[in-house]
Amino acid sequence: MRTAPRLVAVVAATVALLAGCSSPTPQDEVLTDLGLDGLSGQEIVTRLDASSESRPLDFTASVREDEVLLGDGTTEVAVPLQDGEFYVSIAPFVDTTHECFFHSLATCQGELVEEPVDVTITTADGEVLVEESTTTHTNGFVGFWLPEDVEGTIEVRQGDRMGSVPFSTAEGSPTCVTTLRLA
């Protein structure tokens, strides 16, 4: 009966593998500690951008074109974003702004906090992707999930002030728009 030792070895290896899978990884612990475990990349981005906590937060969170990077100072976790969608976070301003390429959900702070704005996002061929009245978050930003690989214009109105900037959701494009001045 030579099959019994082989069967025992296979079962033991399977149990060891399953036990290893059930142990939390440092990446899992980061998401759990931040209260973000079980959330998709889109849910994490939306929740953190709309968070009412004052910036800077005590962790890192950066929106890239295809993932959100989260870190606790020792471990960084990459949570994928859904294919076909691209997040663009916009901080309209009147007087002050900051340079930004990849939106930091933990440190970016825009000038206009909890201010009503009207946002229109239109593709270069005239398709309206967004047309809504909204309010900037505590971090001074409003964010939108747009289709990948489009170009166009973002227009923001606030009262009698208006501004517009071009945008792109092609590979290598920024997820953070801080150049939209309202005048």
Q: What does it look like?
A:
- With 183 residues, the protein is an alpha+beta fold.
- It has one domain: Immunoglobulin-like (Sandwich).
- 20% of the residues lie in helices and 33% in strands.
- It has three helices and ten strands; from the N terminus they run H-H-H-E-E-E-E-E-E-E-E-E-E.
- The protein has a four-stranded antiparallel sheet with strand order 6-5-8-9, with no helix packed on it.
- A hairpin with a 2-residue loop joins strand 8 and strand 9.
- The chain is globular.
- About 8% of the residues have low confidence.
Provide the CATH architecture: Sandwich
Question: What's the CATH topology label?
Answer: Immunoglobulin-like
Compute the CA-based radius of gyration.
21 Å
Count of helical stretches: 3
End-to-end separation: 85 Å
Summarize the helix and strand pattern as letters.
HHHEEEEEEEEEE
Given helix and strand content, the structural type is: alpha+beta
Topology (elements, then pairings):
Layout: H1 3-22, H2 26-33, H3 41-49, E1 60-63, E2 67-71, E3 76-80, E4 85-90, E5 116-123, E6 128-135, E7 142-147, E8 151-158, E9 161-168, E10 176-177
Parallel strand pairs: 4-10
Antiparallel strand pairs: 1-2, 2-3, 4-7, 5-6, 5-8, 8-9
